[in-house]
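User: Quick one: structure for sequence A, then sequence B.

Assistant: Sequence A:
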Amino acid sequence: MSLAKGYAALSKDSPLAPFTFARRDLRENDVSIEILYCGICHSDMHTIHGEWDGTVYAEGTIYPCVPGHEIVGKVQSVGGGVSRFKAGDLVAVGTMVDSCKECSACMRGLEQHCQRGATWTYNAPDRITGENTYGGYSNSIVVREEFVLAVKHAEKDLAAVAPLLCAGITMWSPLRHWQAGPGKKVGIVGIGGLGHMGIKLAHALGAHVVAFTTSENKRQDALDLGADEVVVSRNPSEMAAHTASFDLIVNSVAVKHDLDPFLSLLQLDGTMALVGIPADSHPSPSVAGLIGLRRSLAGSLVGGIAETQELLDFCAEHGVVAQIETTPVQQIEKAFERMVRSDIKYRFVIDMQSIQEPRETKSSALRETDTMVSA
């Protein structure tokens, strides 16, 4: 075993604090990774504060909890049976680190829907030992080869690649499943960590992109991200102008709200996919609004491993990264506070070098690749 340095929550009410723990010895098919950057996701906060106990996590959060599932790093060493990676390779790890690889979902490359339960990057039992998994708010991780992803972006962009591993794939999966692309009109509801990636990706895929926001002052931001049009959803006339015209709407808003105004914008056989998980359920939508034009209301989780690799390759080819601000791990609670206030454009990423050498990390909010390149 090797010792790892991380930050962990010791209870649902405690702040994250330094935590030293053991990473397992390499199994035959394992890859040991030095973590360079780890994105901060709302899921991390929901988990460490026990807000998903009994819902997303049937057994609740297991403490100590080391969160983090938007991981970018460099291979340190590999097990004897590993053939795809070698020391020094740039790699990434997303929301999963294992699955049964035998059920019908896994055989279809949909490990996130593993019928025996995917092994999440943190707060899940290891399939062999049963020990709790610890995530990317740490300086190293050991992962089964099949769940390690190759990174082709330039090293200068690695911090901004990290959010692709959750925010990016969460939006990419429904866009690909419902075939967003040229000739399709796609709506993205919400312009936050998820939504801003949805706008960028739908634009890069060649779709006509309409961004929905409740705030007029976000109009220019959405256009700058690649939206063709912006609708303030509180403006009835702006909403009415798009009635029955969308092929797909991806709704990233994770708070309870009325879905009917957005469902009315779907054309015949249009779909709205929900990707946010609100603490309280949305009001039940109108059945009449669904059946009138054979509209669909669907949900979408993160993508499988093959789909996540497809996303990373596409983003490397088209210059797509997240818009981020880096933070030292010692400032994690301040980052959480700002994230709750939506005081970030659009994603925080932890610079894991800070766990070795505590220091202030320069903001990289403006240090991103040009992401407006079309597919």
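Sequence B:
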Amino acid sequence: MASDASAATTRITPAALLSRKGGEPIVCLTAYTYPIARLLDPHVDLLLVGDSVAMVLHGHKTTLGATMDMMISHGQAVMRGAARACVVVDMPAGSYEDSIENALASAQRIVRETGCDAVKLEGGVAIAAQIAAIVAAGIPVMGHIGLLPQSVEKEGGYKIKGRSDANIAALHADARAVEAAGAFSVVIEGTVEPVAADISAMLAIPTIGIGASPRCDGQILVIDDAIGLTVDRVPKFVKEYALLRDIVSDAAESYAKDVRARAFPGPEHLFSPSKDKA
């Protein structure tokens, strides 16, 4: 499926991002809709259609509420709005873990129906074979290690990684497995800073931090967190660059007052018998 964005603009490729290891930091944000993709596209290198959409836009308590149909629908919307940023779509929980065959079929469906540039999977050693098979089929893969939101129920909550020798060793093994399987980059989430920094220095592929380290090769945030639209708890690792929830609330309050006072719509908002336009 081709993007509706301008064909005249050259899109940033996964290969181009791979070549930036150790260079200019890679700027990443999530996007789930056409207008947000249009607004973010000039400023970022990568847009992630994250399974966080299940929580951010659909009100689920975890990312486990994301479905293939949901990810594809939002992926299509973002592709229509993104002309230059590399677009990566999350593979939802249940679409890749059980077998290589299922993982490959799921990845192929996502790329075929959205036209995205790459897919993202959570895990390391346990899903290295799936990553390798998807890459071998010609689909670029972004990895994801550290805190894994899709494993929240299995782990009994969101637990920061890298606080024990055993866990550090497991993180290193996961990072090496993702790289060896052929991923072009890897997200490191919710990991103690020195451990995330060591992993970034160890790998030859770019690392994208979220609650990790400034020494990662790039950073990503959920867009609603970054612009202050999050209506529930804001994670510790988030910096709010705007407070849009206040603006939205104030605008709704002003609108409600105008309607109740019959101050809206005013004469300038109404159509006359002459041929004026909407």
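Residues 165-181 form the longest helix (17 residues). The radius of gyration is 21 Å.

User: Thanks, that's what I needed.
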